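User: I'm putting together notes for a lab meeting next week and I want to include a structural view of one of the chains we've been expressing. I don't have a solved structure, so I'd like a prediction I can at least talk through. The sequence is below, exactly as it appears in our construct file.
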Amino acid sequence: MPVSYVHRTNANHLLGSLPAVALERMLHHLTLVPIASGETLYQTGRPQPYVYFPIRGAVSLSYLGGATQVEISLVRNEGVIGIPLFLNGVVSPCRAVVRDAGAAYRMSTHRLTEEFNRAGQPLRVFLAYARALTAQMEQTAACNIQGTIDHDWCATCTHANTCPAADP
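Assistant: Thanks for the context. Below is the predicted structure for the 168-residue chain, given as structure tokens.
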């Protein structure tokens, strides 16, 4: 495997935090793809054939309730698009649309499921990320619904620069 390929996987913090042996197993199943602004990576309620690990750009996760669409999170190179897959889901309750063009590593959901069935450290890393993203979504929901925000959370929240309630 070329060194530059391995180095770029470290551009995604979640992939970079995996043990070397797990990353080595996954490398052969990761494909570097461009992600274009406005591109829909997955739709609400539809099966997801792939998960995406952004290395550049940003992907907006939005909840659609009736005619209302609310952004609940923004994922950059810290994480993964496709959380429901490793929480035993096959479809997403939200929509993922590229906000800022860039690039991402893509992997089939089938292959990621195989990796999780091994259990161990990779699964724990992904579950820790899921907990952090869920906390961010909860804070975003509180901000959107109640107009209140925990300002200590703003230091780590990816919405801090766009959230109108984040101004002290």
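A couple of points you could mention at the meeting. The first strand starts at residue 31 and ends at 35. The mean pLDDT is 77.

User: Perfect, that's what I needed.
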